[in-house]
Structures are given as C-alpha cells and as structure tokens.
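Appendix B, example 12.
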Amino acid sequence: MSITAIVPVWNGRQLLERLLASLEAQTAPAAELLVVDNGSTDGAPELARARGARVIPMGRNAGFAAAVNRGIRESRGEWIAVLNSDVELAPDYFARLLAACGAGGLAAGVLQPEETPPAAETAGATNWFATGKILAEGSSHHIDATFDALCRGGAAWRVGNGRADGPAFSLACPIWSAPWTAAVFRAELFPQVGLLEESFESYLEDVDFGLRCAVRGLAGQYVPEALAWHRGSATLGRWHPETVRRMARNQVLLLARHYPRRLLVRWVWPIFVAQFLWGALAFRHGAGLAWLRGEWQGFRRFFATRGQPLDAKVLSGVLRTNEDLIRSVQASTGFDLYWRVYFLLTRGGAK
C-alpha cells in the first residue's frame, strides 16, 4: 500500500526538520512526500527539497485547507497522510494506522450514531481513515489530541486535549472525525466526500470534513498505540486574535453549511449557549474583540454559505451521540468549566 505524505508548511524550518527525520525513520515509509509551501521565508522549502521532498509552491499563505487540497490533487498514493509540520511521529506510526485500517471491520463503539446512515450498510466493513494518540510535545503522558467530537451548539472538543493520559484515551474505537494533525486517509475517500472546505482557511475544516463522513457512514479508527508528539498552535498560538477570529467565524459557518433549518430552530438554545460560552473564554484570554469580529463575519456570510444541509435525522443522531461521548469523558476525567456550564444550561443535552 503506497503512502503519499502531505505537509503544509509556512516557515518553521526547525520544526519541519524534526518531522522529516521522523518520516525517514518510519517502518512503513511514505513513497511520496509533498511539502506544500504557503510562502515560507525561512528556508523551510529548501530544506524539504534537500531531504527528497517535492515542494509545491502556493505563492502566498493560502491557508491550511487550500494547501492540503493542492497536495491531495497532486498525490499518487493509495493512502494520503496529512501531517502538521510541528509533529513528530513514532517510527511505527504509519504501520500501526495502516494495520488498523486493514483489520477488516469496526467493532461497535461509543461514536456509532443512533441513526445509522444508509451508506453505512455498504461502508461498515471499511476503516476509511485513522489517527493515533497525539501527545503534547516533550511529554509522555499529556494528551494533545485523539479525535474530534461536536456538540449540538456547533462547538467542537478535541477529545482529551490538555488531559493526563489514562484509560479513557487508551481504547481503540471507531470515529467520525480525525484531527488532520497526523492522520491517514484512503485516497478513494475524497471522491465520495470532497476535499477540505477552503473558505475555512484553517481551524475546524477537519470537523467540517468529519461531518460529511459521518452522514455517509464512512467511519475511521482511533489507534491509541500509534503515538505522535505535537507542539500545537506553533504558528500563531492558541489564543492569538487571528486564531480566535477564524475559530469563531468557522463555528458559525459549520452551522450554516450543515444544519437544516428545523435543527437550527430546535437547537437555538444549545447553539446560543455554546457560542456565548466560547466568547466568554475568548474575553477571558484577552481575545474578545477577535471573537466578535469572527462571529460577525460568520453571520454576515451565513445565508451565502448555505448549501444542501445534511439529513436532519442522521445529523441529530450523530451530534447527540457526540454529546454523550463528550459528557462521558468529561465526567470520567474532570469537567472543564465550559462543558460543565454547557450541559447544565442545556439540561444535560445528550439525554
């Protein structure tokens, strides 16, 4: 099975060098390495060429989604690995993910939706993508990412982020949404689901993709034995105003793109609570004005963004199951204030 590794890069030469070294050490190495350059000025693309990568210049900072899409269009592998440039992989990372995807079937897991999409009848025996346990850089026991879950209010949780590693994050399970930090995908998935939504630029474009997979029954696998280490928000920082603006805008665009009108009406209170609480966090971290700008940009583009919403019955099942998962993991590992208040104000939400 041939692998094409796609690495979007915008500066960060030293981080890229570490990633390339870990790619060279893979026991199941990539046959093709594409580094998509978003206008780096620190020698990152020159380093990539010297290490055997094919560099695809974007000519400007076109954003993560556009860079990844360009790489996918030009890839030749049966499997597509998408990697942030600030990631380091264990030598068996690809081997473990591919083994899980070739295992032939999905066990019942916590993310199986209540309402199974019709496509799942034919796709249920296939793992279409996989991701591993991604730890915080320099740590052997703190989670950076596992997989993503989305609540009815349109706010996503990268499950386990900031938590100490433990039993809750050590069980393999089927998933609908993988962080594109370090994940592999069957190349044949993209003609069915499409590519990343480029208007998102970066942040939540992977959750948008995951929703499209979910309603088609195209599930992936979380493989906790596959380890990677991630610096996280290495380019701008978690509460940088630009990060907050894009996340606020893209939360609204998720609702616009995928929620049918009847669910927008039925879930108006969870949506308000989720968005308001996220704004409160932004203000607490000194990024309140950026949050307001993002919300305004999202609502201004709301109706222009509306396309063909997802099936209401299937989407409702997927998101309620996601809320069950969020609440369960939060309860077992200690509630964040955000989720404690969200579930309190939405009366438990996932019941």
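The CA atoms of residues 115 and 313 lie 7 Å apart. Confidence is low (pLDDT under 50) at residues 103-124.
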